[in-house]
Design brief:
The protein contains three helices and six strands. It has helices at about 5-25, 35, 80-85, and strands at about 35-55, 60-65, 70-80, 100-110, 115-120, 125-130. It is globular.
């Protein structure tokens, strides 16, 4: 059995090892745009915000889009990280439920009402770049 003082002296060393091990890992896991989204299926949708989730590593915007037949589909589009969006002047406060938006981007490969947002425009004319993936086609940036 080790002495309590010996155990206490090991704590700083163990903390240092844990800190160094944590710093050797990548800063964040990131998927490529092409893994989930289809560059051959651009989208441009107009709708009303239902929810905005500012979370790392990707934020999400959900909004209702009225279909030609009168039904409504709730779409979800991936945005960049909250810090990056804030640097571009876009915060969650700009997108409360009920806000009219126009989103440009690309559809998800899974065929559902999901996509990758390249930009979002508000009814007051302001527009923000929302995506941050490096492999997004440049045509819609």
């Amino acid at each position: 059995m080790s002495h309590p003082i010996c155990r206490a002296s090991r704590l700083p060393a163990l903390a240092l090892i844990a800190l160094l091990a944590g710093n050797s890992l990548p800063a964040h896991a990131h998927h490529a745009f092409a893994a989930e989204f289809d560059a051959d299926q651009p989208l441009e949708l107009k709708g009303t915000v239902t929810k905005a989730k500012w979370v790392n590593p990707h934020s999400w915007l959900y909004f209702d889009v009225k279909n030609p037949d009168g039904t409504v589909t709730n779409w979800g589009v991936e945005f960049g990280a909250p810090f990056t969006l804030a640097q571009k002047g876009l915060t969650k406060a700009e997108l409360p439920p009920g806000t009219e938006v126009r989103v440009k981007g690309y559809k998800a490969k899974n065929g559902g009402p999901f996509g990758y947002s390249v930009s979002v425009a508000l009814a007051d004319g302001r527009s923000f770049q929302t995506g941050g993936a490096q492999d997004v086609p440049t045509a819609t940036r």
